[in-house]
Amino acid sequence: MSKDDMAGKSITYYGxxxxxxxxxxxxxxxxxxxxxxxxxxxxxxxxSLYFIASFLNFFNLSRENIFIYGGYxxxxxxxALVIGLCxxxxxxxxxxxxxxxxxxxYSYGICVxxxxxxxxxxxxxxxxxxxxxxxxxxILRMVLVTGALSAIxxxxxxSFKTFSIAHIDTFNLLLVQALAIGxxxxxxxxxxxxxxxxxxNIQITKExxxxxxxxxxxxLLNRGRFFSVxxxxxxxxxxxxxxxxxFDLDEFKEINDSMGHQMGDKVIQIVGRTIIDVLGIEEHYKxxxxxxxxxxxEGLAGRLGGDEFIVLYRTKADDKTSNAVLSExxxxxxxxxxxxxxxxxxxxIGYTELNVNDDxxxxxxxxADDALYEAKKAGKNxxxxxxxxxxxxxxx
Length: 396
Description:
By secondary structure, the chain is of the alpha+beta class.
């Protein structure tokens, strides 16, 4: 490994740099929250058994300590309810819950060891191993917290037990403490590696989605993805006015033939950029489709191929909005000075409005295509509307 690879890496963050650790922090908090819930429920089961055994005087557990056992039962139930009923809150404050959970279990281990002074402690050692494996924090803080609690454990051992048993506790603790910290470092280093791999896979998935969904030249949806998303929007059936428009650039072949395909690509890019700007859909097109909330998508634009484009627009206003939006797009295209000549980009546009409760996208496409044909036939660089009989009746 080179010096550059080692730069910024820290044992505190399990061999990763601080920024990499922060990238995983969201998943670390969520994971810790889930593990706290599992550990707390397991702890609840254990202290409940201790409480019952103490009440029945089983296994040499005295009733004198039943209130202490009962206190831990109530504390564990309270924590379980808070974590279960307030998931967002517990994720946000996962470190605080982690500290509470660790102190509760470790202190219980110390109490259990002190209550049974005639045998070496075991519960504390089990909790030490489990918590260091369960929670991702940072190695320095984990060493300090477990070290401080272990010191208290040894103090109680020498205070309540004979020297020979306390000596055994000391040996067992030192061994388990070293083992726990070593396992903690290796286990959570691998866990962070898994988090990083997971995030990388998500990023790759998003990139693949972009490549499979968006036209690389314009950033608009490709043909297949446009119709897929448009179909989902139509099925929302929220009472909006929805119209479909087809764009076909006029004399685009002449641009390619006379100025080259590079200039043709520039024209295509300008058209795509203009449609996005006028429709105001840039924010959605910066995200992957899986992140879209279709209820908030007012406009949808795609490139069908070559110099053909398609737009879906929905509005709560009357259908006059559609003509105003399309006129704005055409106006901006006509003044686009793509080659310095000032002649602009010409386009014929045909559009149609879908009837209320109409989700036949194929029929709407055909109507818009018929209107586009009329625009071409009438002299190009203009807008034509195809109205069905139902729409004509609605207009009166």
